Amino acid sequence: MINRTNTHQKISTVRCLAVDLFLVLFLVIADQAAKKLAYVYLKNQPSVSLIPGVLELHYLYPENRGIAFGMFQGSVLFFAVVSILFLLVLIYAWMRIPKERFYLPLLTIAAVLASGALGNFIDRFFRGYVIDFIYFSLIDFPVFNLADVYVVVSGILLILFVCTKYRDDDFSFLNRKP
């Protein structure tokens, strides 16, 4: 059982914002750098096996102009609008989450989710497609990128935290007027 009295220690909003903005910036730069390296070194090249039969670096060509396993190909404007709306919802949620130690996992998850959305938004906005280059050949999983990893891992963590750490009343901050 979590001792809730010690976990609700206040954290400076400015400090929390600075740390989360740094995290977002770092993760987006890592994602964009990895995609640039994939474009330069993997495009039109054979796959590079990192773990034989398990994990490969493989430039997806033709590039991914859709979402989630290549669905909705070519809808760049739609994806841009959805990404912006998603980022606005994340910013709104981040602002509403109390800046307390107890909620640090949610604040961090929101930052990582935003990093993934922003990383793929940058690709779609500036390139018109997303660069995918990580391939789990062991299970023949679709090719993906670091931004996708950020979204999936933070989504799984969000579900785990909501189901195990937090109770319904821990989300009362969503019902209060700003």
Protein described:
It is built from 5 helices and 3 strands, in the order ααββααβα. With 178 residues, the protein is mainly α. α2 runs parallel beside α4, α3 packs antiparallel against α4 and α4 packs antiparallel against α5. The mean pLDDT is 87.
Quick recap:
This protein is mainly α and 178 residues long.
> Helix share of residues?
40-55%
Number of strands: 3
What shape does the CA trace take? elongated
Question: Mean pLDDT, nearest integer?
Answer: 87
**Strand numbers in spatial order across the main sheet:** 1-2-3
Distance between the termini: 30 Å
The major beta sheet can be summarized as: 3 strands, antiparallel
- DSSP strand content: 5-15%
Low-confidence stretches: none
Give the H and E element order. HHEEHHEH
Alpha-beta content class: mainly alpha
Assembly status: single chain
Provide the gyration radius in Å. 18 Å
Number of contiguous helices: 5
Features:
54% helix; 5 helices; 6% strand; 3 strands; elongated; 178 residues; three-stranded antiparallel sheet; mainly alpha
Note the topology.
Layout: H1 4-7, H2 13-42, E1 48-51, E2 55-57, H3 76-96, H4 104-126, E3 134-136, H5 146-164
Antiparallel strand pairs: 1-2, 2-3
Helix pairs in contact: 2-4, 3-4, 4-5
